[in-house]
Amino acid sequence: MLLIDPVRMLPSLLLPLVGVLFVGGFSARSYGWAAVGVVGTVVFAIIRWATFTYEIVGDRLETKRSLISRSVRTIPLERIRGVDVSTPPMHRLLGLSVLKIDTGASGGDEEAELDGVTLEEAERLKSLLLHRAARSQAQAHAPAAAAGPSEQELIRVPRRWLLYGPLSGAYLLTPFALVGGAVGLAFQWGDELGFGQDAAWSLGEWLWAHPYLLLAVAVLLVVAMPFLGGLMYAVFNWNFLLKRRDGYLVAERGLINRRSVSLESGRVRGYEIVDGLVERWANVVRVWAIVTGLGDSQTRGQLLPDVPRTVAFQVAANAIGPYRADLRSHPPAARNRRLFRAVFPWLVLAGVSALAAWATGASPWWILVVAALLLAGVGVPLGLDRYASLGHGYDGVRLAVRSGSLRRSHAVIERRAVVGWRLRQTWFQRRAGVLTLIAGVGAGKGGYSALDVSEAQAAQFPAEVTPDWLAPFLQPPPAHPQPSPTE
Q1: In terms of domain of life, where is this protein from (predicted)?
Q2: How remote is the C-alpha of 397 from its chain's centroid?
């Protein structure tokens, strides 16, 4: 840790150290002050390492830090929702790891972090903490727990499926992110590195004066998108493994930073299957768990990267539970609304551009008219696909809602996770006779919406899923006995 901490602090110290050297003209005194800064980071790392301790005392975990003021954090073991073990590059070289404990009580931040424990100690603590946290649940279900193996591998994603990585839109932007970071670095550190912001502006103006070269750079970035995107995807999802162990779902992945995330099965309330437009054409999807009290669910809740659709539904059914019902279609008014929103704005733009072209006679306006009409034509299949993606259903145990086109989300939630219903209707929805039905869930996003359902569906679906909630309002009140004449 005396090596890791200074190296980790180096990015924040690099700019001040370079500034000290430049201001001092690279003299002996400037090198001395730079050395003092480096020694100071090492001393700070020594103090941090020497003043931090952790201990399991009875039914709680205590972490203590006494750098300046004494701080003691106590975490009841029964409140632990998951344990995340990761091995960043430097930690892996030195045989160390980072163990993060999530209790679901701190939003997106973990409750405790043990940085720099050995791999053996991390695995020992992980098994110990999860075993003690799940002891009460295991005792309540002792016959069921004893019937099956303590560890079961659900899926090990084949490496050939890493070729699906470029289909995920987020990774495709990697080349542009690298170029943007380089430009920001040039403007931020240009003066310290000797070429200054004026040189960066001059380079930009020279590129702008040579549009063909600029176009070539843009083409190279576009061509590099699938390769760099696929590389980053493989780095983060290398050897993806999902298994069930001692009442927890454990997902392990990563090449440079190997990460292991444990989710308490008793807290999992469903799953969300997501695919983009390109992924849908390739018939691949991604899967996230819907978990109560889970911080950073978009990262820690991932159950599967891009895998074939049939495999994803099978693994989700084995890990959490199947959904055994068809989705119900939404009324034709929902289709009309999606077609209108996908086509009408472009028709308005085409009309305005045509008027401008007629008034000015400028040819660029006609180009804009043609482009708007083409986009309006593309909006027709997009609107139909958005309507085809709508659906909701209930199989007696779990309910499901689906919506979206460019990013389609299919959420399957246990009935016991529903904590309320919300009906929302805009002015345009009232005119169309549809509304949005939101199932309030104490997990995941907190609510999952069935868009543009009919008024009959909005009344019948909650009554079907949670009939006991509505029964007191539908049954007539009991008749009061009539008093006898003597009374």
Answers
A1: Bacteria
A2: 26
In one letter, which amino acid is 313? F
Residue 234's SS3 state is: helix
- Which residue's entry shows tokens 């090449």? 255
What pLDDT score was predicted for residue 25?
59
Looking up tokens 């299919």, which residue turns up? 410
CA distance 242 to 251: 5
Q: What are phi and psi of 405, to 5 degrees?
A: -130, -65
pLDDT at 182 over 70: no
Size of the chain, expressed as the number of residues it contains:
487
Instruction: Name the nearest CA neighbour of 395 among 415, 425, 367, 378.
Output: 415
Residue with more model confidence, 293 or 19: 293
Closest by Cα among 436, 427, 390 to 409: 390
| Residue 162 pLDDT greater than 70, yes or no | yes
Token pair of 109 as six digits? 């931040």
**Beta-bridge partner residues of 155:** 242
Residue 146: pLDDT band (50, 70, 90) is: very low
| Average of per-residue pLDDT across 198-210 | 64
Per-position DSSP letters for 348-379, written without gaps between them: HHHHHHHHHHHHH--HHHHHHHHHHHHHHHHH
**Measured distance CA(313)–CA(298) in Å, rounded:** 19
Q: What is the pLDDT of residue 186?
A: 58
Q: Do the beta carbons of residue 441 and residue 290 sit within 8 Å?
A: yes
Residues whose CB is less than 8 angstroms from the CB of residue 162 and which lie 6 or more positions away in sequence, other chains included: 230, 233, 234, 237, 238
